[in-house]
Amino acid sequence: MTAPLLDDPPLRPPGEDGGLRQTFRNRYLLRLLVRRELRARYKGSLLGLGWSYVRPAVTFSVYFSVVGVFLGMGKQIEDFPVYLFSGMVLVNLFTETLHSTTRSVTGNAPLVNKVFLPRELFPTASALVSLVHFLPGMVILLGGAAAAGWRPSPAALAAAALGFSIIVVLGLGLGLACAAVNVFFRDLEQVIDISVIVITWSVPMIYPWTHVREHAPGWVLDAYLANPLVSAVSLFQRAFWPPATGGDFTLPPDLYARAGLSLGVSVLVFLAGHALFARMQRRFAQEL
C-alpha cells in the first residue's frame, strides 16, 4: 500500500510573512548585511573600526575646547568632560541610527529590485552598525567616569538601560518611517542632515537644562522636557556623571516619570514607523 499523498500547502505571495519577526529569523542574512556595510564603510581604510574611537574623540575635543574652555562652561558644570561625553555618546547613537537607516533602502536598491528579502533587514542592519560604533564611545565613557570616581550601582545601571532603550526604540521607529518615505521623496535625506544639527543643540549635552529654565518661558521649558531625547540624555548623565559633582546639581524634575512616558512614546513611534514601512514597502521595487 502506498502512503496517501499530502495536500500541498496553499501558495502565498512572496514576503507575506515578512516584517521584523521574519527579519530576526533570518539572523544569518542580518549578520551578512551588517558585515557588508561595515566592510563597505571602511574599505581601503588603514584604521578600519579604529575610526569609531577617533571620531568621538575628535568631536569631544572640539566641543570641550570651544564650549568648555573658551565659553567657560567647564567652570559652570563640575567635571564637564564626563557630563559632555555621557550625553554626546547617546546623541551620536541616535543621529547615526537616524542618518543611516534613512538611506538603508535606497542604498541597497539592487538587492531590493533583484532578490526578495524582508525589507526591514536593511534599516535593522543599519541600526546594528550604529550600535557597533556606539560601543567604542561607551568604553571611553566608562573609563573616564571610573577615573572621576564612578562605580556601578543598580540605580545607575537602571538609569543607563532606560535611557539607552529610549534611544534605540525611538531611533529605529523613526528610521523605519524615514527609510520608507525616502524611497519616494529623496529630499528627506537633506532634512535629516539638517535635523542632526538641531538635535545636537536640543538636549542638555553642551549646556545644563537649567539654562532653559532660567532664560526661556515656562511653556518652552515644558516642551523641552517633554522631548524623549532630553529624558534619555539626562538618564545617562544620572548614571555616569553625579559621582563627580558632589551631589549639588539637580537633574530635570520628575525625571523617571518623564522617562517612562518617553519610553511609551518611543514604543508608539516604533509601532507607527513599522506600520508605515510595511504599508509602503510594496512599491519599493517599482520606485527604485
Any overview of this molecule?
- The protein has 288 residues and is mostly helical.
- 70% of the residues lie in helices and 0% in strands.
- The protein has 14 helices and no strands.
- The protein has helices at residues 20-25, 27-41, 51-70, 73-76, 80-102, 109-114, 121-147, 154-184, 188-201, 210-215, 218-225, 228-240, 255-280, 284-287.
- α2 (27-41) packs across α7 and α5 runs antiparallel to α9 (188-201).
- The model has no long low-confidence stretch (mean pLDDT 84).
The main pleated sheet reads as: none
For the secondary structure, the number of strands is: 0
Distance between the termini: 54 Å
Shape: globular
Q: How much of the sequence is in beta strands?
A: under 5%
Task: Provide a brief overview of the structure.
By secondary structure, this protein is mainly alpha-helical. It is built from 14 helices and no strands. The model has no long low-confidence stretch (mean pLDDT 84).
